[in-house]
Amino acid sequence: MSAQHLERRHAELLVQGGMVVTPAGVERIDLACVDGRILALGDLQQSWSADTRLDARGLHVLPGVIDSQVHFREPGLVHKENLEAGTRGAVLGGVTALFEMPNTHPLTLRAADLKAKLEAARGRAWCDHAFYIGGSDLNAESLAELENLPGCAGVKIFMGSSFGSLLADDTQVLRRILSHGRRRVAVHAEDEARLRERKHLVEASGDPRQHPLWRDETSALMATRRIVQLAEEIGRRIHILHVSSAAEMAYLAHHRRRVTVEVTPHHLTLQAPECYERLGTLAQMNPPLRERHHQEALWQGIRTGVVDVIGSDHAPHRLDEKAQPYPQSPSGMTGVQTLLPLMLDHLQAGRLSLQRLVDLTSAGPARIFGIEGKGRIAPGFDADFSIVDLGARRRIRNDWIASVSGWTPYDGVTVTGWPIHTVVRAQVVVCDETLRGQPQGRPLEFLETRPAASRRCSPG
Question: What pLDDT score does 451 carry?
Answer without folding.
Answer: 58
